[in-house]
Design a protein that fits this description.
The complex is a heterodimer of chains A (about 130) and B (about 120). Chain A contains 6 helices and no strands. Chain A is mainly α. The longest helix of chain B has 25 residues. In chain B, helix 1 runs antiparallel to helix 3. The radius of gyration of chain B is 16 Å and the shape is flat. In chain B, about 40% of the residues are buried. The chains are: A mainly alpha (about 130), B mainly alpha (about 120). Chains A and B meet through helix 1, helix 2, helix 5 and helix 6 of A and helix 3, helix 4 and helix 6 of B. Chain B: Keywords: Membrane, Transmembrane, Transmembrane helix. Chain B: InterPro entries: EmrE-like. Chain B: It comes from Luteibacter jiangsuensis.
């Protein structure tokens, strides 16, 4: 069962990462940003926007399946830890340097997400107890 | 951050939060538990359509936002949505903010501030 969760969490992160990379590439190929139909046409004319939709749909169904079986705390964390995978892939594929503010900011955000995930686990464990 | 980037970032937080809360409002308060009847009851509520509308707009806002900032900064700055939704959940649904949640919200906010100040 533990292997099932781990696979699910990794799949969720992979779908989220695919979606974010696709969002970025869809936007970059549709520059400049203008509030008109021409910008919409540029966005939907190239394949990346559909990669973003596919990533979102994949993440949605993985999330719903995970929620049915996995504890909410780790599932919550996994659904937000893609910030790390996206940052690493951006450094590799988009040549965005791993600057100090990015690494420090990411570490702080991840610490916060882990606290929030632990808080979810706390409520799950405490709530059904006889003293709760 | 240019005014356009800042405006898109704020719009993203706003649409994401309203969308999530609308979905929450649509999902809670239906009597039917699970199955097709549950989905049918939700589809009759205006809340679900507000949520879907918000997500549609957010989809475009997010693409525009990411096209103007490095992707690393974009996803890190987007983490503020977690904070906004938790605060809104407490305000509207009376969800409890325990000690660990307050620490988590503080850390996520601090991390977003570090990225925002450095980017």
């Amino acid at each position: 069962m533990r292997r099932f969760y781990l696979f699910g969490f990794l799949l969720l992160m992979a779908f989220d990462t695919l979606a974010q990379l696709s969002f970025k590439l869809a936007g970059s190929h549709a520059l400049p940003v203008t509030a008109d139909a021409a910008w919409l046409a540029r966005v939907f004319a190239q394949p990346w926007v559909y990669g973003a939709v596919a990533g979102y749909i994949g993440a949605f169904f993985t999330w719903m399946t995970l929620l049915r079986h996995a504890p909410i705390g780790p599932a919550f964390a996994a659904s937000h830890l893609e910030v790390v995978s996206v940052m690493l892939l951006s450094a590799w594929l988009l040549h965005e340097p791993l600057t100090l503010p990015r690494v420090l900011g990411a570490a702080t955000i991840v610490a916060g997400i882990l606290c929030l995930a632990a808080a979810e686990r706390e409520t799950l464990v405490v709530a059904p107890g006889p003293a709760g | 951050m240019t005014p356009l980037i800042l405006g898109l970032w704020i719009a993203n937080v706003a649409f994401d939060t309203v969308g999530q809360l609308a979905f929450k409002a649509a999902a809670s308060g239906t009597e039917e538990d699970g199955g097709l009847a549950h989905w049918r009851a939700m589809a009759m509520r205006p809340w679900i359509w507000l949520g879907i509308g918000c997500y549609g707009v957010e989809f475009l806002v997010w693409i525009a936002f990411l096209s103007l900032v490095p992707l690393s900064d974009g996803v890190l700055l987007g983490s503020i949505n977690i904070v906004a939704i938790m605060l809104a959940g407490r305000w509207l649904f009376g969800e409890k903010l325990t000690g660990l949640r307050v620490v988590g919200i503080g850390l996520v906010s601090l991390g977003v501030a570090i990225v925002g100040a450095g980017g």
